[in-house]
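Sample intake — Iron chelate uptake ABC transporter family permease subunit
Collected from: Candidatus Corynebacterium avicola
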Amino acid sequence: MQLGVGARYKGGVAGTRLILVGIGVSAVLTSLTNWQLSEAQTFDTQAAMRWLTGSLNNASWNGVQLVLVAVVVLAPVLLAQWRNLAITQLGDDTAEALGVRVSRTRLILVVAAVGLIAFATASAGPIAFVAFLSGPIAARLVGPGTNLLVPAALVGCLLVLCSDFAGQWLFDARYPVGVVTGVLGAPYLIYLIIRTNRTGGSL
């Protein structure tokens, strides 16, 4: 739905338009989810809330196999577009002048990324802030001018594993991995907002 609305407008799939449509779609789906939870049985509600928080407690090999298939199919699509992705960071007009079809590239990247996220979320729930944290961490580790897709993916995996270990073993109570990543990611988001307000840049 989101991609369809974005693609129907003149100018193709614009980043701001996708974000705004995504916020609207997310609000509608969140309302439907809350309604379903209010109508569900107590046991089903508890299981759903654990999944919505983001948890590896109920992970299974069937879920791992599905995620592996998605990675094998969709990861090469992302890797094939990394040069175009790097060029689009210069701005849409500059990228178009350099021969990159920005709308087409953005559409391919969004479809592939959403596919990977969908399979990962179906397996473990929406684990918060992993992508938000792994990209900047990978950029600091490997430096500028490098393909960040693989390093960011590896950092994300390590972040999830370490957060799950911390949530299960470092505290008196056990916490889902999504709680730990949320505690780590929220302060970083606040820091970025403060820094952006001071410098006048963008996130």
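Post-analysis note: The first helix runs from residue 2 to 8.
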